[in-house]
Amino acid sequence: MHEMSLAMAAIDLAAEQASLRGFNKVTALWLEVGSFSCVDPDTIAFCFEAAAKGTVAQGAQLYFQHKAAEAWCYDCNNTVTLTERGQACPECGGYKLRVAQGNSLRITDIEVS
């Protein structure tokens, strides 16, 4: 379950940033989840709650922002939105695609007090 290590890393990053700026409580965290990231938001939320116990992020709200996958098509020279891995370009039907975004997980905002 890689979601636990991702949740712990997010808590560590949020705690570090809060400390650097003189805050002692993380109240909310926003995570951008790419549609190709292989991260299940429900599982990461469960892991986040468990991993945050006893940290500055205990009780923090977790919000998810979903990011669509986009790819560059070498056949038609367009940036296209994809709904699943392995699909053809929705513009030209080609398969020469390079995923440009949508395969990552990142913190976009941290709320502190």
**Rg calculated over all Cα atoms:** 17 Å
User: What class, by secondary structure content?
Assistant: alpha+beta
| Number of distinct beta strands | 6
Mean pLDDT: 95
Strand content: 25-35%
Spatially, the strands of the biggest sheet line up as 2-1-6
Overall 3D form: elongated
Helix content: 25-40%
Number of helices: 2
Order of helices and strands: HEHEEEEE
Rounded to the nearest angstrom, the distance between the terminal CA atoms is: 31 Å
Unreliable segments (pLDDT under 50, ≥5 consecutive)? Answer: none
Concise description?
The chain has 113 residues and is an alpha+beta fold. The protein has helices at 2-20, 41-52, and strands at residues 26-34, 61-67, 69-73, 78-82, 97-101, 105-112.
